[in-house]
Amino acid sequence: MSESLATVDSIVPDELITAQSKNKIPDKSSQKCLESENESSDGTKNRPSNDSEEAFQTIQIESSCSSFSSSDAEAKISLPFNSQGPMGSKLLIDSSSNQESINHSSTNTIKQNELEKSNLNNSGQRKNMMACEMCNNYEMQLQDMQYREAVLHISIGQYEKNIVKLKEDLKKEQSFENELKSLSSQVDQGQNSFEKISNKFAKLNKSANSSIASLINQIDKLKSDIVRLSSDNEKLIGRHLKKSREMLSESISLPEDPEALQFYCLQLREDLIQALYNREHLEETLRSENIFLKEQLLGEQQSKENIEENLAHENKTLLVRTQNLESELKNYKKNFDQIKIESKMFQNNYEDLSRSSSQKIEELETKLQILSDNKAKSAEEIASLRSKVQSLQIDLDNSEQVQRDFVKLSQSLQVQLEKIRQSDTEVRWQHEDDVTECNGCKKCFHSRKEKINCMHCGRIFCSDCCSKSIQSGPNKRLFKVCQVCHTLLDHQTACWFVNEVPLSPT
């Protein structure tokens, strides 16, 4: 028992330090450390943890139970542990029939237990204080890093806002420049349209003048035709008059024969009729030609008047349009000159803004690079602190697992010792009808073949729990025994709970 308590004193405080220095962030474990520190300063409670307290209670109960009277009664326990869990242990139980030595060893064990418990409480209190200081340091470092990171985020946000504002100003300048280009293109288009309209007006004026000249020529031609026709008419009239006068002046020689005279009269009558017909036909043709020429002359005059009116109207519209275009061109020129002046001003402002913005962007880029470097460093520090936290968490979990395994081991050992002490009050050999489950793993039996009696303690186990064998007797025969009896009888092998933690007793 003294060896076990010495081993526990050398191991459990380290595990408590690992458990209590787990995190740099204040959580439940750090709160437990602070509470344990406050309790140790008040002097009310001096306990490392609940698991260690249960372990010490179990050891105390075991040592107190060892004072009971029995035939085989001394238990010497050696429990070595490391930081990862139970690695090896030896259970040495020697039979002794001396009741006085048992009582003496139990009293010594109780005294040593109390002494070791007080030493363990003092060392646990000291290491609790150290662990709490480490937690506070980690917490302060984390808060500092978080504050620095928040400041960096705020400054980066301000710089990004400034960059966005400068980009918006640059976009406005570009839009104004585009508007200026569009206005200049509109001025060019107006000039081109004015030139086109002036060319069109010149062409129309030229065509109108040519058409007027052709109409004048046609009118002159018609006038000459009328004069010619009138002269021809007058000539014809004068010719007929002359002919009639000549005929009147000529002497008429009539034939003497009545028949010849009658024939001559008839012939003259026919010539007269033919002359009248020709006269009427000629008059009709002349009259129709005169009417046609008059109508053609009127039509030509009407078309001339219409063309002159259209030309005058088009001339007026073209003049109005040219005046409007000239006024628009003047306005465009004024606007263009004003826009040129404003564009020069904006160009100068743009150059100034571009220079200042480029300088600011360079400054912001340098600051951003510095901030990114600081952020990367802070991220590395945070990652290292997180790795430390994870390692401390793993150590805490390991220590808690060690303490739980220690409690389970102590309880199982206590149960085993209690069963060993009570074995003298019962018949060692168990009957197969009295047992329905394995005494080791609590496996239910379905047939008698599965029930195997241990040749040392007489209890019934399954084939897995009673797989060990030991040599006994003068002929060194092999007998199947359980794991506990194999540990009791064979001192050269390790205990059954070296490789696996025993089940907690129910």
Report strand order across the widest sheet.
1-4
CATH fold description of the domain at 427-506? Herpes Virus-1
Number of strands: 8
| Broad shape | elongated
Low-confidence stretches: 1-99
Ends distance: 25 Å
GO molecular function: GTPase activator activity; metal ion binding
Biased composition (Low complexity): 95-106
GO biological process, one term: endocytosis
Biased composition (Polar residues): 107-124
Could you describe the 3D structure shown?
With 506 residues, the protein is mainly alpha-helical. The protein has a domain of 80 residues: Zinc/RING finger domain, C3HC4 (zinc finger) (Herpes Virus-1). The protein is built from six helices and eight strands. Strands 1-4 form a two-stranded antiparallel sheet. A two-stranded antiparallel sheet has the order 2-3. A hairpin with a 4-residue loop joins strand 7 and strand 8. The chain is elongated, with a radius of gyration of 69 Å. The two termini are 25 Å apart. The N terminus is likely disordered. It comes from Sarcoptes scabiei. GO terms for molecular function: GTPase activator activity; metal ion binding. Keywords: Coiled coil. This is Rab GTPase-binding effector protein 1-like protein. It holds the Pfam family Rab5-bind.
